Fold this protein.
Amino acid sequence: MVDVFDIYDKMERNNILLSFKGEITSDLLTSILQIMENKMDNMQEEPKMKKKVYNVLVECLQNLYHHLDDCADVAGINEKVRSAIFMIGKLENKYSIFTGNYILNENIHGLKSRLDEVNSLTKEELKEYYKKVLNNGEMSLKGGGGLGMIDIARKTGEKLEYNFLDIDNKVSFFTLNIKVSQQQ
């Protein structure tokens, strides 16, 4: 049997404001954004911080929605094809946005390279890199220009924390932790 109290207790200790596990749809994204906007209103969050969190949240959720790998019929994951996990928490003056989803192992190297490149850049270099990618006009295989992670790093001023957990020889689970604080 699932120990619901254990899950509740872990969420309470980590001050998780919202969590979701399941299929990622456009309707879900709209609902999550509306819920978080209401929560931050109720917490009387400063407008500048509220805007920053909201903008980063939009990028994170869009990344989940647009860049989930199609892992159908791979390693018995057929039910979890569009499934992901999302959580947002707040400790002191810093929000943490966590996402997790399945990724085909063949796509890890490219994603890791982009994340490492973004993490290696200074604030000014990120600004220039953003302009370069924007003006380049190249689209990724999933239709985006690769601006999402650059934009998140620019808005937060933080390094992108990520991990790949091996599931089997075809699929891994990708996790991303974004920290959003008032300073930048």
